[in-house]
Specification:
The protein has 460 residues and is α+β, with helices and mostly antiparallel strands. It has three domains: 19-60 and 73-84 and 255-379, no CATH class; 108-247, no CATH class; 389-457, Homeodomain-like (Arc Repressor Mutant, subunit A), CATH 1.10.10. It has helices at 19-28, 32-45, 74-82, 108-116, 124-135, 147-154, 158-168, 181-192, 197-205, 207-211, 215-222, 226-236, 284-291, 297-334, 336-341, 351-358, 362-369, 401-413, 423-432, 439-448, 454-457; strands spanning 49-52, 259-264, 267-272, 279-282, 373-376, 379-382, 390-392, 398-400. The longest helix is centred in the last third of the chain and has 38 residues, at 297-334.
C-alpha cells in the first residue's frame, strides 16, 4: 500500500447554523413575556422595525385552520401594517387585567417611618437611632445587627438603643423589630394577650421539638397534657414568623398564557396568544426612502439589509405561532381525557410521542414547550406539565406520575390525623388499586408535594 496525498471528491450533507436559523430557534423557546422584551430589543437595534401595540384581549381572536400554506409575500405582509391598511377591530376590548393588578407601593421602612412620626416625646437623637434601626431591618422585619454594635456605631448607650427598639417593636406589623424567631413569636403573643407561662416555655425552649412534632417530649418537660400541647401548637402555627414579608420589595411576576384551549361544543380549539405581543411593522419613512431613486446607494443597501432582517423576524414569529399551535393541538388530542375528567385521567406522555405525531424533532418540541403556559378550562398549566413519567398498573396500562401524586394527596387528606398513614401503608393501598409503586417512590412524591411525614402530621 502506497502512502501519499490524493484528491477525492465527495458529497456530504450538513446543517449550517446561520444567524437567521439561530434567531428562529431562539424565538421558538421564548415565553410571551420574553418575546415581548426581545421584540423591543430588535426594534431598538433595527430602525426599520416599528412595534404597534394592540389589545391583549382574546374575545375576537379567530382560530386559524390548518390547510395548504399559501406563498406569502412577506414584504407586502409586513408593509400593509406600515401603510395603515391593518386596523384593529373597533369592537375589540382594550381591557387588560394586568393594568388593575395590585402592587404594594409602600416599603417596610416607609410604613414604620410614618408610625415613628406619630410618636411624641422623642428627641432628635432618639429619632436618629429609631431611623437607623428601621433602616437595618431585613425583608422579614428582623434586626440581625447586635445592639452593642449599633450603640458603638452611633456613639450612644446600649440601654438607649434597647429602649428605642422596644418602641419600634410595638409598631405594626406585630413582631417587627425582633432579633430572632423566638422574640418575634413572643411579641405577637404579648400583643394578643396569649403569653401564658406554658406557651412561653414552649417558644423559649421547645421550638425545634414543635417543628418535629415531638409533642410528648414537650408535655413531659413543661408538665402539661398532650391535648394542651396540641392546642399550643395550633395557636403558634397561626402566628406570622415573617411580619415584614408583606412589604417585600420583590415585584409580583405574572404568567401570560402563550396558548389558550377553549371547548367549543364537543371539540377543543387551540388559540395562540400572539395578540399579547406588539405587531411588527415597517417604518414608512424608510420604506419610502427605499423606493426613491434619488436615495444614496449605500443608504438604500443599509435599509435593504435591515428590511431583510425584519422580514426574517416576521417569518420566525409566524413559524413560532404555527409550531405552538401544532404541538398544543397534539397534546390536547392525546390528553383529551384529562380535559374532560381531570388530573386523575392524565396519561403518561413523552416528547418523542408528540414529535412523531407532528413530524418534528424532539429538541424542537422541547423548545416549543419550554417556559410556555396554556390556559385551559381546567386552569393554567405549564406545557411541560403534560409530559409525565409512567407507572405500570395491574391491568397492563400505565398511570401518570401526576395522577398518582394526586391520589397520594387525596389519601393523606382523608386520613385520620390522630393515626396518620405511613408511606408503607399508602404504598400498599396504591398497590391494591392496581398501581405498581414502591415505598421510596411514594416518599419522593410526598416530599415533592411538600407534605410532611406521618410523624409530623400526627395530632394528639
Amino acid at each position: 500500500m502506497s502512502l501519499g496525498l490524493n484528491l477525492y471528491q465527495e458529497q456530504t450533507l450538513k446543517l449550517v447554523m446561520t444567524p437567521e436559523l439561530r434567531q428562529a430557534i431562539t424565538i421558538l423557546q421564548f415565553s410571551s413575556a420574553d418575546l415581548i422584551s426581545y421584540l423591543h430589543e430588535q426594534a431598538n437595534e433595527n430602525p426599520v422595525i416599528e412595534l404597534q401595540d394592540v389589545s391583549a384581549a382574546l374575545e375576537n381572536i379567530v382560530p386559524r385552520t390548518e390547510g395548504p400554506k399559501p406563498e406569502i409575500d412577506w414584504k407586502e405582509w409586513v408593509g400593509n401594517r406600515a401603510t395603515g391598511e391593518y386596523t384593529v377591530n373597533k369592537n375589540e376590548s382594550t381591557y387588560n387585567a394586568l393594568d388593575f393588578a395590585h402592587k404594594s407601593s409602600t416599603t417596610l421602612f416607609e410604613h414604620l417611618e410614618a408610625q415613628l412620626g406619630m410618636v411624641k416625646g422623642l428627641t432628635e437623637g432618639q429619632r436618629r437611632i429609631a431611623l437607623y434601626l428601621i433602616g437595618n431591618l431585613d425583608e422579614r422585619g428582623y434586626l440581625e445587627i447586635p445592639i452593642e454594635e449599633i450603640a458603638i456605631r452611633l456613639g450612644v448607650a446600649v440601654l438607649e438603643v434597647e429602649d428605642i427598639l422596644s418602641v419600634i417593636q410595638h409598631f405594626d406589623p406585630v413582631g417587627v423589630g425582633a432579633r430572632n424567631l423566638e422574640e418575634c413569636i413572643l411579641l405577637q403573643l404579648q400583643h394578643t394577650g396569649m403569653d401564658d407561662e406554658a406557651i412561653v416555655q414552649v417558644v423559649t425552649h421547645h421550638l425545634q421539638d414543635l417543628a418535629n412534632n415531638r409533642l410528648q417530649r414537650i408535655a413531659d418537660s413543661i408538665g402539661c397534657t398532650l391535648s394542651d400541647v396540641q392546642r399550643i401548637s395550633d395557636r403558634l402555627r397561626m402566628l406570622n414568623p415573617r411580619p415584614g414579608a408583606a412589604f417585600s420589595g420583590n415585584d409580583t411576576r405574572y404568567v401570560i398564557a402563550d396558548v389558550t384551549v377553549e371547548k367549543v361544543g364537543r371539540d377543543y380549539v387551540v388559540l395562540v396568544n400572539d395578540i399579547s405581543a406588539p405587531r411588527l411593522t415597517i417604518n414608512s419613512f424608510y420604506e419610502k426612502m427605499l423606493k426613491e431613486k434619488s436615495s444614496v446607494e449605500e443608504a438604500k443597501q443599509f435599509i435593504h439589509d435591515k428590511l431583510n432582517a425584519a422580514l426574517w423576524l416576521a417569518k420566525s414569529l409566524e413559524q413560532r405561532r404555527l409550531t405552538l399551535m401544532r404541538v398544543t393541538q397534539a397534546i390536547v388530542d392525546l390528553q383529551r381525557d384529562f380535559f374532560e375528567h381531570g388530573v386523575h385521567f392524565l396519561k403518561p406522555m413523552t416528547q418523542k410521542e408528540i414529535a412523531e405525531r407532528v413530524g418534528l424533532h424532539e429538541s424542537t418540541i422541547s423548545r416549543a414547550t419550554s417556559n410556555k403556559y396554556v390556559q385551559t378550562p381546567r386552569g393554567l398549566f405549564e406545557l411541560k406539565y403534560f409530559f409525565t413519567s409512567a407507572l405500570a398498573t395491574a391491568n397492563g396500562d400505565a398511570a401518570s406520575s401526576e395522577s398518582v401524586k394526586k391520589r397520594i394527596k387525596a389519601i393523606i387528606e382523608g386520613e385520620d390525623r390522630k393515626k396518620p398513614l405511613s408511606d408503607q401503608v399508602i404504598t400498599e393501598m396504591l398497590v391494591k388499586e392496581g398501581v405498581e409503586i414502591s415505598r421510596r417512590t411514594v416518599a419522593k412524591y410526598r416530599e415533592e408535594m411538600m407534605i410532611p411525614s406521618s410523624a409530623k402530621r400526627k395530632r394528639f
